[in-house]
């Protein structure tokens, strides 16, 4: 297939740089446009600080960063890693101009017309994009907004999706969240080093409690009905570079055995795996048998950061079942999540058409890169 030209809003931040990394040599998408704040606009991307250990892809380094109001120059498909202070209005402006915005930001996640998507969990919710396009009309019918959840929510939702057949009814979750989740430059070092901060601002706990219910809700062709269970969350910041840990206690109405819970997590698979989407992990949930796993340092980057990890599944004397889960917050919780969303959109024929230009490496068949 011909490559689809894509742009990155907020290309200079923690998540934006991960987009640049993950999109290098992507079989379907080609980065042709970058935007960020007035601080970065007008500069070549390789004049700005690159903070990842892998080299900056040269073709992207040569691009000049655009300001957010250069809407007319933007390609048809945009990934958004904008700070939430500007993402809300900016994403609407791009969608109104016929761009499809696949966003990480929190601003539109709970909008009743916006799909909040994890391709393994609720691929059918993409049907809401058609409802959104009809509701807005105008150039929006060629674009729209699709979001991925908060970086800790995605870990919780993947676990609960794998256990959905056992009918979750109550969930308690405590997170230990990595520093990269706060963006750059993030948490001051004197606050973070050797410490646990028992509060994350910006409504982090509410995001886990509400987004999870939308993600596991039912789409009836017109709207989403939230899942009928309750989630209570406590979120903490810990001095870990990458990887959010979620310690979960879960009540399951069907009362399966522990072995059945482990088997359901281990065997979980969904549409991205069936379609072999380029960024889909072969196993969305990796079960760890050792009592000392999963660990952020050892496990978060496995499979290019796309699987969610699970371990220590055991009885809970209060809710019945408890476990430890882990996900790479900047990849599976952010840039990788949005990229997988865009791949599902493209595979279902819901993303803008390809540009018609072709490069030799684009002839490569789409195979899993993870
Ligand atoms: P970040 O490192 O602070 O990057 C923010 C980006 O937004 C930068 O590119 C910045 O451009 C741009 N920006 C800030 N103010 C702007 C303005 N007034 N106009 C235009 N652009 C502006 O943040 P991040 O961690 O990458 O997060 C990006 C988004 O993803 C946020 O909405 C965040 O909540 C969400 N998210 C983050 C994570 C994570 O683990 N980090 C996970 C899930 C979701 P300049 O460099 O030019 O200032």
Indicate the topology:
Elements (H helix, E strand, L loop, with lengths): L3 E6 L4 H10 L5 E8 L21 H4 L4 E2 L9 E4 L3 H13 L3 E4 L23 H10 L7 E4 L5 H10 L5 E10 L11 H4 L11 H12 L2 E2 L4 E2 L4 E8 L6 E9 L5 H9 L4 H4 L10 E3 L8 H4 L8 E9 L3 E8 L3 H17 L23
Parallel strand pairs: 1-2, 1-4, 2-3, 4-5, 5-6, 7-10, 12-13
Antiparallel strand pairs: 7-11, 8-9, 11-14, 13-14
Helix pairs in contact: 1-11, 5-7
The structure holds NADP nicotinamide-adenine-dinucleotide phosphate (NAP).
Would you give an account of this structure?
The chain is an alpha/beta fold and 370 residues long. It has helices at 14-23, 58-61, 84-96, 127-136, 153-162, 189-192, 204-215, 258-266, 271-274, 296-299, 331-347, and strands at residues 4-9, 29-36, 66-67, 77-80, 100-103, 144-147, 168-177, 218-219, 224-225, 230-237, 244-252, 285-287, 308-316, 320-327. The strands form 3 sheets. It has a 6-stranded parallel beta sheet, with helices on both faces. Strands 10-7-11-14-13-12 form a 6-stranded mixed beta sheet. A two-stranded antiparallel sheet has the order 8-9. Helix 10 (296-299) links the parallel strand 12 (285-287) and strand 13. The longest helix is centred in the last third of the chain and has 17 residues, at 331-347. It is globular, with a radius of gyration of 20 Å. It starts with a strand and ends in a 23-residue tail after the last helix. The relative contact order is 0.16. The model is unreliable at 355-370 (pLDDT under 50). Bound molecules: NADP nicotinamide-adenine-dinucleotide phosphate (NAP). NADP nicotinamide-adenine-dinucleotide phosphate is lined by residues 10-16, 36-37, 39-40, 68, 81-84, 86-87, 104-106, 151, 180-181, 183-184, 329-330, 333-334.
